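Data availability excerpt. The first of two example chains:
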Amino acid sequence: MSQHTLEARLNYLESCEAIRGLIGRYATAADQRNHPLILKDVFHADAVWTAKGFGEYQGRDNILNALSEIAEAQVLWSLHIMAMPDIQILDTQHAKVSWMLWEVCNFAEQKGLQPKTSCLGGFYQSIARQDAEGIWRFDRVELNLTFNQAYPAP
């Protein structure tokens, strides 16, 4: 095995692990009511975040503000389980990433209804980019929720 091949394989493995960590930090921030101090490090300044029913936001500051407002107004608590990440390293600085979402959350009272606990499921599609300092961040995150069911009452 040549040194070049070994370096390329090591770079691939390190990139995949860094992207898995990026997904984990994103989930941690979401479970802390879209905590902006955590979220600011997962998005590039010109990133896009989109989800049907929640909107599309461009630019890190707009994303942080919108996700904080969503947490404040709609989601009282949540537990995000990010599963089965599929990471496709496109080149030394770009990756296409997808993963599944399973989430239990408590939605705030809406239209006079009591807060409700729900199970959500869906799929994330994203583009990640490694910056000049070697940090992987999201350029684009798209959530497609495909399942929303009230959590069964005991």
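And the second chain:
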Amino acid sequence: MTLSEPLELQSPMEFEGTTMLEPGSLAVWFTFPGLWHDIGRFHRADGQLTGIYANVLTPVRIEGRVWHTTDLYLDVWQPVGGSDRILDEDELEEALSAGHIDGNTADRAREEAARLVRLSQEGVWPPPVVHEWTLERTQATLEDASLGA
């Protein structure tokens, strides 16, 4: 799990008229070795949760302080109070056409994005840890750690 620094964005990141991230936003990221995605809790600058975001990527390999993975273009967005959506299918198609990704890997990315949406609809995604580690809990834990508590 990692906490982003306040984001320096030129303009808000929006989807269908709803702000996902804005300048000063924070994200709590969950990375799970072996899985084909990571998960972010996205918050506005005032700390309000806007939704859950998943990057579809190759399974992360962690070697000491170095992480290895490849973003596979697709993302899944679960806005607060809304339905899950697969994002950036056009980016995946462009990457496939340009030869930046092979057909088997593109198919695996599509399968993973569809699987996440299906698991969300079944009520089993994201995993409980993502709901348990709110921004407030993450910040309090980091503050306690910095104070030596």
